[in-house]
Amino acid sequence: MLRWKHVALLALTLLAVGCSSNSKKELPPAELTDFKEEVRLQKQWSRSVGDGQGELYELLQPAVDGSTIYAASAEGRVMAIQRESGDVLWKQDLELPVSGGVGVGGGLVLVGTLKGDVIALNAATGEQKWRTRVPSEVLSAPVTDGDVVLLQTQDDKLIALEASTGNQRWAYENSVPVLTLRGTGSPLIAGRLAIAGLASGKVVAVDLQRGLPVWEQRVAIPQGRSELDRVVDIDGGLTLVDNTLYVASYQGRAAALDPASGRVIWQREASSYAGVAEGFGNVYVSEASGTVEALDGRSSSSLWSNESLARRQLSAPAVFSSNVVVGDLEGYVHLLSQVDGRFVGREKVDGDGVRVRPLVVGSWMYVFGNSGKLVAYTIR
């Protein structure tokens, strides 16, 4: 199974650089074009967090709780940093290969490992509160409402743990396709529901307290003759805004769902392994091809599309002020106008690339580069 997952990752990489059946030559990432700079970023501080994303294509996303930002590296370093001054509050070296994180809430900082460990640290001190072993590797951040810690494993199990002790409350199993992309999105806690996107192209909701199924909705239908053609993972996570759930799958669709019932509000063809963002009533999609597209959040009609970042392996988008921001494989963050998608700003952050979604909190944006550089920006 691990080999198949890595084959899928390799195939995804080939697709991202534009490999086709009638050409043996891989197309390079699109060259960056000049534009009139309208928005400039001001670096406020920069810190190094271990080895960052490591070499196994991890997606370790920092998290903010109040005045503190928490970040973890693949080698197992976890840090708490005052988010406006950049002062390091504490750091903890777990000496375990962290692959899922960071989750924060209820006084806990949560990470998962390649060995299936889920570790809870005290958010104020960094001291370990508990450690629990689950059956499979954890490749996305656990989430918590202070009562339950919810996580999704590589084999698409949803597992709920007691936030106070780490003891298992329930586990919900799903069948996994023969071939999948390596990774999972983080699940969501929405009131009484635990909601997750699966490798099968489905979104499921289960009762948060008991783990019993409430609804299931298929977003993508596997098509094609080969197993590679039929990969429809939902790896970019879910976005819940104003009682609407937005989701996108690889080689499938982008969709808006009613989180209470799973009813489809709208859907349209899309292919994304990174995910979506919402802002000003629009939904922004980072396509696997490198296109960034804006959709009307009510009707799904296309508002604009920017194809200038083709094959640049974009991060999930974020909305920062009146801009859409994406990172790329060369370590740039690109700022696009929410109005028409034109480039309005660009900043080089990390020569090793930017893989995870920029994190926006109010007038601040935090970018975590692949090498471990965590940088705080404001707009000049």
UniProtKB/TrEMBL annotation:
<dbReference type="InterPro" id="IPR011047">
    <property type="entry name" value="Quinoprotein_ADH-like_sf"/>
</dbReference>
<dbReference type="InterPro" id="IPR015943">
    <property type="entry name" value="WD40/YVTN_repeat-like_dom_sf"/>
</dbReference>
<keyword id="KW-0449">Lipoprotein</keyword>
<keyword id="KW-0472">Membrane</keyword>
<feature type="domain" description="Pyrrolo-quinoline quinone repeat">
    <location>
        <begin position="75"/>
        <end position="306"/>
    </location>
</feature>
<comment type="similarity">
    <text>Belongs to the BamB family.</text>
</comment>
<keyword id="KW-0732">Signal</keyword>
<dbReference type="GO" id="GO:0043165">
    <property type="term" value="P:Gram-negative-bacterium-type cell outer membrane assembly"/>
</dbReference>
<dbReference type="GO" id="GO:0009279">
    <property type="term" value="C:cell outer membrane"/>
</dbReference>
<dbReference type="InterPro" id="IPR017687">
    <property type="entry name" value="BamB"/>
</dbReference>
<protein>
    <recommendedName>
        <fullName>Outer membrane protein assembly factor BamB</fullName>
    </recommendedName>
</protein>
<keyword id="KW-0564">Palmitate</keyword>
<dbReference type="Pfam" id="PF13360">
    <property type="entry name" value="PQQ_2"/>
</dbReference>
<comment type="function">
    <text>Part of the outer membrane protein assembly complex, which is involved in assembly and insertion of beta-barrel proteins into the outer membrane.</text>
</comment>
<keyword id="KW-0998">Cell outer membrane</keyword>
<dbReference type="InterPro" id="IPR018391">
    <property type="entry name" value="PQQ_b-propeller_rpt"/>
</dbReference>
<dbReference type="InterPro" id="IPR002372">
    <property type="entry name" value="PQQ_rpt_dom"/>
</dbReference>
<dbReference type="GO" id="GO:0051205">
    <property type="term" value="P:protein insertion into membrane"/>
</dbReference>
<comment type="subunit">
    <text>Part of the Bam complex.</text>
</comment>
